């Protein structure tokens, strides 16, 4: 395993991933400000990403619940 630093990245759908700090994230992904080892980043994601549904699906589900 490498000691390479990673960043936690997220997209507009509220999904999270890790990305090497020495590379720019892919289009549509943004750095969250958290960097560290891969394990540290994965631990952070586990704490903050508690609803794995994309934001658009969460919004549609909530909207459908408001109608019912």
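-> sequence recovered:
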């Amino acid at each position: 395993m490498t000691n390479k630093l990673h960043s936690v990245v997220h997209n507009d759908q509220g999904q999270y991933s890790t990305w090497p700090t020495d590379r720019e994230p892919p289009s549509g992904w943004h750095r969250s400000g958290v960097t560290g080892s891969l394990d540290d980043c994965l631990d952070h994601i586990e704490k903050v990403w508690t609803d794995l549904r994309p934001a658009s699906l969460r919004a549609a589900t909530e909207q459908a619940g408001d109608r019912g």
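The mean pLDDT is 91.
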